[in-house]
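Incident log, support desk, overnight shift.

02:14 A customer reports that sequence design results differ from what the structure should imply. Their input is reproduced verbatim below. On-call engineer (initials T.W.) acknowledged and began investigating.
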């Protein structure tokens, strides 16, 4: 397997093949952004110890260094060093995302901000022009600590909003996926792919009720057909996202009155296409004669 050898004969070849395929896009990203192999291996050691310690306990007792070493294959001295370190992967939400996501959710689901087609209205910029149904009023309904001008400048920079010919503020209907701003994109990259992978992993391990994870796959399409399907997917996907967002917003308001533990959820949609590589013709064979 391309020079990769394992002493564990119980490893599933199908799983190893799937893991290699899953990792390729991440390796491409890391190479493009300067994350080297030595840096990655140290990070993987850290993650192996963290996941093993948190998710593979024996009973209710903390795992010993010896148990973690046996489970992960990492030397005990490294286990000890890593367990006394601090993990730096706590999800930090950029300000543009935390406030922006709330504003977009309200703008795309609250009937006050929707037109007759259930699409986000084009909002006057200032309250003096539109009252509460203005961009200034929208921001004030979510936060009194930040001026609407600051939010608007950032949204224009990120490509989340734009002005129309009447100088009204328009929400770009691709929901809150910034067109610019690397940190904002990276936040969604980590959040969305983590939850997709967590759902798929849970389904494979069979530890709980299976999560929704479905896709449609075809590999005999022309470039024009792929374009048509991309547009159709974007249309239907946005309809689904807006519908789930509206219901979630209503339920969250209702649940705020309950004294129960909170849960979080993610519902996501993606579309991907690429050229299909032609199958390689079998190489010439040589016959040996005795």
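02:41 Re-run completed on a clean worker. Output:
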């Amino acid at each position: 397997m391309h020079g990769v050898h394992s002493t564990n004969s119980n490893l599933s070849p199908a799983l190893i093949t799937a893991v290699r395929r899953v990792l390729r896009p991440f390796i491409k990203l890391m190479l493009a952004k300067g994350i080297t192999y030595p840096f990655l291996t140290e990070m993987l050691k850290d993650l192996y110890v963290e996941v093993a310690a948190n998710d593979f306990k024996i009973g209710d007792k903390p795992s010993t260094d010896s148990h973690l070493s046996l489970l992960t294959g990492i030397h005990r001295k490294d286990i000890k060093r890593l367990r006394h370190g601090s993990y730096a992967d706590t999800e930090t939400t950029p300000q543009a995302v935390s406030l922006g996501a709330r504003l977009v959710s309200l703008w795309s689901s609250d009937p006050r901000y929707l037109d007759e087609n259930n699409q986000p209205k084009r909002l006057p910029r200032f309250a003096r022009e539109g009252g509460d149904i203005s961009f200034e009023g929208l921001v004030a309904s979510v936060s009194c600590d930040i001026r609407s001008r600051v939010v608007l400048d950032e949204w224009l920079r990120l490509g989340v909003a734009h002005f129309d010919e009447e100088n009204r503020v328009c929400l770009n209907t691709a929901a809150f996926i910034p067109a610019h701003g690397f940190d904002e994109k990276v936040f969604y990259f980590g959040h969305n792919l983590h939850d997709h992978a967590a759902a798929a992993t849970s389904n494979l391990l069979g530890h709980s009720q299976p999560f929704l994870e479905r896709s449609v796959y075809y590999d005999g399409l022309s470039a024009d057909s792929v374009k048509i399907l991309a547009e159709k997917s974007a249309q239907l996907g946005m309809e689904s996202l807006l519908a789930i967002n509206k219901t979630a917003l209503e339920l969250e308001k209702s649940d705020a009155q309950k004294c129960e533990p909170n849960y979080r959820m993610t519902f996501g949609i993606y579309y991907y296409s690429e050229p299909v590589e032609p199958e390689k013709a079998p190489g010439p064979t040589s016959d040996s004669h005795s």
